[in-house]
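Can't attach files on this board, so I'm pasting raw text. These are the components:
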Amino acid sequence: MAMSSAWAQAFVLVFDPYNLLVMVVASLFGLFVGAVPGLTATMATALLVPVTFFMAPIPAIAAIVTATAMAIFSGDIPGCLMRMPGTPASAAYTDEAYAMAKKGQAETALGAGLVFSALGGLFGTAVLMLAAPALAEFALKFSSFEYFWLVLLGLTCAVFMTSDRPLKGFVTLMLGLLVACVGLNNPAAIPRFTFGSIELLGGIGMIPMMIGTFAISEIIRYAVDTNPPLRIVDQPIGNVFKGMWALTKKYPVQILRGNAVGTLIGALPGAGADIAAWITYAISKKFSKEPEKFGTGCVEGIVEAGSANNSALAGAWIPALVFGIPGDSITAIVIGVLYMKNMNPGPSLFTNNPQNIYAVYLLFIMANLMMLPLGWWCIKVSKQILKVPRTVLMPVIMLFCVVGSFAINNTAFDVTVMLIAGIAAFFLEASGFPIAPAILGVVLGGMLEENFVTSMIKSDGRVLAFFERPIAAALGALTLAVWFLPLLLRRLRRLAGIEVEQ
Amino acid sequence: MKINDAIWGALLLLFSVAILIHIQSFPNIPGQNVGPALFPGFIAVGLAICALALIASGLAARRRGVEQAPWIGAEAWMRSPRHIIALTLVVGVNVFYIRFVDLLGFVPAGVIYLAALFAAFGVRPRWILPLALIITLVIHYSFYKLLRVPLPWGLLERFAW
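---
Top answer:
Structure tokens for the assembled complex are below.
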């Protein structure tokens, strides 16, 4: 009975009029941010945090869940009409959608983006509902040894998933972990790297840093963008839902595969909707019966990758809620919000306050259902949205970031943190250093050190103790394998005399 | 601006050595084998290893051909004065804001902030001031009145509304 009463409470929380209003406003915000090139879903989340700061936990989460789901869909719109992805998650199939638009099939491309995005989101939610509680039950038995390896495995995964050169990923990971060391918040409670600054005692503010990394760096990128303004493909867009049922019947395998792979990639730490879309688009082409049509305006890849990026969004919440390990950069911010709202992620969240978790499931279902009518409307008005002058929009967003960073602690120091993070992210990315590992390092650094130190004290400094519990041993072996296997294989291939690709 | 891996590597190597020296000053915890210096120490060593690998890869890239691996790669915006000014202003207005917001107050600082950027990005001149003023007031109202964030009044202290 406890379970059904928790579900009843969850329904009350979600269908509260204030919460529904927040969801509608967040939807419009998300659709807009996604549809404007240069504004990303992660940026939408970062911009929402200062506002959600003043809300109850469930509306705060509702705002983020709805806005990100909508933004990942609406990123398809400028991709299709202007050949410029609205968010990185649409980049994989932008050329394909644009080719369709030029052939006069914008309607079908956008319709497929909308319908299969919603479907992907619902699939990811279903997996979240099944997998998260099961994992949480399993995780209740974890000690500091298992958590240490789990966090390390998550960070490793982020390095290997987010860049083609793991070395650069390791560099940003280390920088992120160092940022996490600043302040008093360590097992010994000794001020580290504070250099006498009182503001640094509390550590470097996570939220201002995220706003800088994901919003300010985009604005800098806009400021130095020398590409000429883009032109919109001008053609009437009719009923976008036309022909979607036929597509569903034609591509059931692609839809299912896109959803499943998307959810899995979302759940892997660090890799999110954008990587899910690239990988599923490639899979779709590889297994297609007509791969030669890819790139010429063929809907098959859009069906698969368009559903994958939305399912990844839900998948990313699985490790975030169960272990506090973010599945993508959006959930990295979400974890910060959960801590602020006293909904600390971890297995006990599922046992102590199940109504909150059920409410999160409901929010995901609602958001993806709302996407159909609101997304349809957004496609209708998309040409007006794409005409909003970015020359005005970008400065306004930046001032909003400044005020938002200030609002978290009411200190100008946080604005400085935001600015430095933004500049650093811009220059690192320009030299090919991925940002996601740094963010994961900052979010997980404290957890990694705490579990490491606890384990070292428990084991009296014996390193072998990290492998003595069966699950810890398995996780540890897996982590080391991911680290050293590529090196070992390369060495073996070289020994065998096979030319190594550069 | 693509900076050669070797330069990044050298900078990161210096940085990690500085950290390794600095953490020597962290106290030990009596009766414990792990002190506050251990974890940052591991990371600094890791960073130093990565830095050495970056130096090696950057130098190797240069040996293969200077054209493909300049020390600092020029990008299109670095040859366009308009874009350099825009970049300078994007950073500059934030520094200005951080430095002067308490003195001037949010509303004047916000108007200057937006107007400078509008000008840099090429908004039509006659729209710059009206837009900057209206948007600053809207942001001020949203955060000061609705969310109760204590944005500073500065010069306008006597006229606070």
